[in-house]
Specification:
Length: 398
């Protein structure tokens, strides 16, 4: 990333006190700030900024800048608080103190309280400063660190300047945090593609677009009995395990999960007409991987694998926002979605993966085998149904 120099101290200070949409990107914000600081005459060879993020899986983002490599962004999940990346570090110390902390590194290594400080000293670092951004939140604590290799470390004037610069920087960081939070939360709850469309303002209630897509509908077998035999607290982690085993292959093969409906999953794979055969093969691979994940990853306490039924269909759907004025849902509707759900219901008495003729016709010959022609409940047209050869002992006679 190439960041244009500010050219003057006043230009840097003006930037600090004004809004720039580009600064919503945390790595751009970090690059620009370090550029201004170094232009100001303060030697920095390494810096790090921590921005907490409201997210069910991620605790936040850490942007590490070095003079040789520029910015690298790391996503940190909540488990990091129990690892050496957080424990016994200046970051943990500032979370507790909520005050700026400084360590001169021109001392014996044994006198330095944290392994990170010893590492920086070994790199030639002479001084280390960590400055928290002001927040009233009890657990959230954004901060930024600076390390220098300058002889005698930071001067008192440089320390004060860095602290002063961090006051307006903290407000820019807040904007970046809000941007990351809104995008990450929308992606978690809507899916990446739908989230991008909502953020861009493309869809209002009742509007959307018609797309051709592969439709995935799957359902956990025996969920009613499971829910009847166990409490909600016991069922929830089992469902989470099931959804993880099934949803990861969908996402790994460019699918978009639109809904978790109880124990069911509705996902789409918008068609890539340039290589439709390969796309169908990829979706089929996602389905077999999901079955393998469930077979090979027993949930703790379970004496047998969880089972699922997966239907694969292809057709036109309406993709957009529907709902009431105060509660919207981003989803797909149309006869093809209903047909996929009906095909999945056949898995209960037949095979774990079933596909329609609309999906099967785009696969290489003999990839799947015909098993029957079905009139689906509520659907006028009959559908030929296919499955994988390994699920049947011989191809049924048509």
């Amino acid at each position: 990333m190439t960041i244009q120099a500010f050219g003057s101290h006043q230009a840097f200070k003006t930037w600090l006190s004004t809004y720039d949409p580009a600064d919503q990107q945390a790595d751009v914000l970090m690059e620009r700030f370090i550029s201004g600081v170094t232009d100001y005459g303060i030697d920095i060879y390494r810096a790090s900024m921590w921005l907490p993020t409201a997210h069910p899986e991620l605790w936040g983002s850490q942007i590490i800048w070095t003079a040789t490599n520029g910015c690298t962004l790391y996503r940190r999940d909540h488990s990091i608080t129990s690892t050496s990346t957080f424990l016994n570090t200046p970051g943990e110390a500032v979370h507790k103190s909520r005050q700026a902390l400084q360590w001169k590194l021109d001392v014996d290594e044994s006198a330095l309280p944290y392994p990170l400080l010893k590492e920086i000293k070994q790199e030639g670092g002479t001084d280390y400063l960590i400055v928290p951004f002001h927040t009233d939140h009890k657990t959230e604590q954004p901060w930024i660190t600076f390390a220098t290799q300058q002889h005698d470390g930071f001067s008192p004037a440089h320390i004060q300047a860095l602290k002063d610069f961090c006051v307006p920087l903290s407000w820019k960081a807040r904007v970046a945090m809000a941007e990351m939070a809104s995008r990450s939360l929308l992606s978690v709850y809507l899916g990446k593609n739908a989230a991008q469309k909502v953020i861009a303002g493309e869809f209002k209630r009742g509007t959307g677009e018609r797309i051709h897509s592969i439709i995935w509908f799957s359902d956990l077998r025996g969920f009613t009995e499971l829910a009847d035999a166990k409490s909600g607290e016991e069922v929830t982690p089992i469902l989470d395990h099931y959804f993880e085993c099934v949803s990861k292959p969908i996402e790994d093969h460019n699918g978009e999960i639109l809904k978790f409906i109880g124990d069911a999953i509705l996902a789409i794979f918008p068609l890539n007409h340039a290589n439709l055969e390969q796309q169908c093969l990829d979706v089929l691979a996602a389905a077999t991987t999901a079955l393998s994940n469930l077979e090979n990853n027993l949930f703790k306490g379970q004496d047998k694998p969880l089972k699922t039924g997966i239907a694969l269909h292809l057709g036109e759907v309406f993709y957009g926002n529907i709902g009431g004025s105060s509660r919207l849902d981003f989803t797909v509707i149309g006869s093809a979605v209903n047909e996929a759900a009906r095909i999945e219901s056949l898995c209960k008495t037949t095979y774990p993966i079933l596909a329609s003729e609309h999906f099967n016709q785009h696969l290489p010959e003999n990839t799947m085998v015909y098993i029957s022609t079905q009139r689906l409940r509520g659907v006028q047209k009959q559908h030929e149904i296919f499955t994988l050869p390994q699920f049947v002992s011989a191809t049924p006679t048509q």
